[in-house]
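Hi D.,

Good news: the full-assembly prediction came through. Inputs first.
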Amino acid sequence: MIWQQLQSLAGSYPLALRGLGMTVMLSAISLVLGTLLGFGLGILRTGGNRLISAVIGAWVDLIRGTPFLVQIFLIFFILPEFGIELDAFTAGIIALTNLAACFICEIVAAGIRSVPTGQVEAALASGLSRWQRMRQVVLPQAMRIVLPPLVGQYVLLIKDSSVVSAIGLTDLTRVGWLVVQRVPNGLLVFFLVGVGYFIVCYPLIMLARRLERRMGAAHGEVQL
Amino acid sequence: MTNATKTGMIDFRGVNKWFGSLNVLKDITLSVEPREVVVVCGPSGSGKSTLIRCINGLEAIKDGDLVVDGQRLGDPATNMTQLRTEIGFVFQSFNLYPHKTALENVTLAPIHVRKIPRAEAEQAGRDLLAKVGLADKINAYPSQLSGGQQQRVAIARCLGMRPKIMLFDEPTSALDPEMISEVLDVMVAVAEEGMTMMVVTHEMGFARKVAQRVVFMDAGAIVESGTPEEFFSAPKTDRSRAFLSKILRH
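Then the structure:
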């Protein structure tokens, strides 16, 4: 019987590849956008404007304090009530990008705050503009603190992407649900789904570990 | 901005500053002429660091006038970033950029702020590091340098901007005793080239050698001001006598 199931599973591999592709694409797009947005928010969060900082802080707390599934439902099912129709893929990208940006914002803000004030004062005193101070002095030093948890966060976000199967996107997790209807062996099917996620995440886990080890050796800046 | 009355390079007129309810600068009036070297001393907490940090706007003044190089601080017409390029500031804790080499520390602002071509800035940076005795350390990172070497790089970093004014905030206080003189020697050389300098320090040998004036502060106010000769041999107030007896004892 297990042999039959395996054969049937092997026949599902195009679907599985599609699911894996969807998971990778969704994650990659959201992580790139979320990283850009997260760095921007993190820089603004520490930028000295109290109002902007408070608004970003409140939004980050809201997103971090509510389940991702609820956020996806709100974007996909509730926004259309207000006339904003989104296809599932766009809704998934928006939800995941927003989630990524919020977590990354806090990681980046913590990194920026870890740079000693003397560094900013030295940059100020030599006449560097706000952007030059950030780009040349603060961010390179903040990256030391930021990189290991950032890569760790990517792993968490890739796994969180499985939640988008709830709005009908055929990602790896949803492929699992589809296949298990034909091959009634949940343990086997979802074991393979897990392996799929692990293959995507493991290189990142290794990278995070490597970065953490290199922190001590670098002169305040991390060369990848 | 032009000023009707004649001004020095740095002009404090009735400057006050508070940290909360603490009056850290009390009615400061002080003028520093171009090419003048002024040493500021006083017990810790007397406001001397705050005084020089106000000059490049690292601290904001509460009231009074502070005019630096003809520009009034706090005036909307004053471009603070621009003014800071004319003022070198040497910190007690060096504050070199740890992720940049000695040469990169020196060339960063010339390249990005002054827009000097990289090759030219690097040549100037090498010359400056040679001048402070660190020709062999241009590619060293700050963590590979001793405190005295780091402070000399920090001075070279300021000189790289060709400033009109140099401010020193206890530049030798964080150094081991055997490294103090190498930094003071560089400061003497800078002073002898005619730089306008304000130096917060207790190095009285340095004051005697190059300062035209010593300003003694206590509790946020300027208590006494005079030539090093007058100040050291005949301090006028009890507070300065008490201070001098403490720092000159050893």
